[in-house]
Amino acid sequence: MTLAWSAATPGSFPIAGYDISHNRAFDDIMRLQKVGNVTTVTITEGIRATGNYSFRIMARDTAGGWSTTGSSVSVVTPASDTAADQTPPSRPTGLVAANSPEGIALSWSPSTDDVGVTGYDVYVFDGLWYSALYTTVSGTTATVRPIPAMSSLYVRARDAAGNLSAESNAVRSPNVSSPTPPPSSSPPPAPICSVVYRNSSQWNGGFVAEIQIRNNTGAPIENWTFGFHFGGDQVVQNAWGTGTFTQAGRTVTATPATWTRVIPPNGTVTIGLLGRWTTSNATPTGFTLNGSPCS
Questions:
Q1: pLDDT digits over 2-50, tens only?
Q2: pLDDT tens across 178-187, in order?
Q3: Cα–Cα distance between 255 and 258 in angstroms, integer?
Q4: Does any domain span residue 49?
Q5: What's this model's pTM, rounded to 2 decimal places?
Q6: N or C: which end of the chain has fewer CB within 10 A?
Q7: Residue 143: φ, ψ to 5°
Q8: What count of other Cβ atoms lies within 10 Å of the Cβ of residue 152?
Q9: Are 134 and 122 spatial neighbours (Cβ–Cβ below 8 Å)?
Q10: Looking at residue 241, which CATH number applies to its domain?
Q11: What is the CA radius of gyration of the chain?
Q12: Above 90 in pLDDT, residue 126?
């Protein structure tokens, strides 16, 4: 995979090089490659056929400072880089799940392809970093067995050359729902979202964190904006599961990646952060989703 970009403008110190991070859709393993003061790089580590990868870049200066993360770019690799057909089908849309006597009934809108769609692969994602192919079907419906509460399902279209599309939106088991609070004389409005923030790794001066955002409503939340305030002096260097990510002081704002664009009813999406801190890595507060506070 070869990437090219426009050179960053130096600040107080000259540009020393660039840090390029990338991860595969529905995979929280983030890889980082450092290069010198160049504007192109070829990345081979962790790249495989039919993968959907998001790439982000940061400039670093000779004093050890970093720029903000540049805009991300997503690429679906072909089944073969020597085949005549290297164009993937379009992404399946509108994936929904419903209960059925046999398990979970899935349906989605069809994809298109320059040659022709031959089928659809249905995957189970464990909610962290592992996806497994469950079944391949020729149409736009499938029935699967019930899945664990933390897992979700998504679909990719396939063409005759073996190219795979980008992933559809993810759905969870329709049996998973938030408990209904008991009625009261004057019930307060329930938060539309809840958040679990967890440091999956922490060391002196750095951390890796995972944020699980739950939709507590009965309707999907699409193209969301998520915000919070760091409790310490953390600075995020890379993020995954997000489309755009900005930080101003302790205030953070994020928008979704393609595969996290829709939070299903009573479902979740997960984003990850890689960052540094100097005096405090205190837990963030003030989580919001589309401007509404989360519990």
A1: 999 999 999 999 999 999 998 888 876 788 899 999 999 999 988 999 9
A2: 556 666 656 6
A3: 10
A4: yes
A5: 0.59
A6: C
A7: -125, 130
A8: 26
A9: yes
A10: 2.60.40.290
A11: 21
A12: no
| Residue that terminates a domain, selected from 76, 104, 123 | 76
- Residue holding tokens 């962790």? 46
What is the pLDDT, as a whole number, of residue 176?
45
Beta-bridge partners for 236: 275
SS3 call for 160: coil
Q: How far apart are CA 218 and CA 185, in angstroms?
A: 23
Residue type, 48: R
- Choose the final residue of a domain: 133, 159, 185: 159
For residues 275 and 235, is the Cβ–Cβ distance under 8 A? Answer: yes
End-to-end CA distance of the chain: 41
**Using an 8 Å Cβ cutoff, are 143 and 107 in contact?**
no
- Residue 259: phi and psi, rounded to 5, are -85, -5
Distance from chain centroid for Cα 188 = 32
Number of domains composing the chain: 3
Q: Domain check: are 281 and 206 in the same one? A: yes
Q: Side chain identity at 79, as an amino acid letter? A: A
Measuring CA to CA, which residue among 57, 139, 149, 161 is closest to residue 104? Answer: 149
Given a cut of 90, whether residue 66 has pLDDT beyond it is no
In a domain, residue 9? The reply is yes
C-beta of residue 247 within 8 angstroms of C-beta of residue 204: no
Phi-psi region of 111 (alpha: psi -120 to 50; beta: other; left: phi over 0): beta
CA 240 to chain centroid, in Å, comes to 6
Q: Percentages helix, strand, coil for the chain, rounded to the nearest 5?
A: 0, 50, 50
Closest CA to 278 of 213, 230, 210, 206: 206
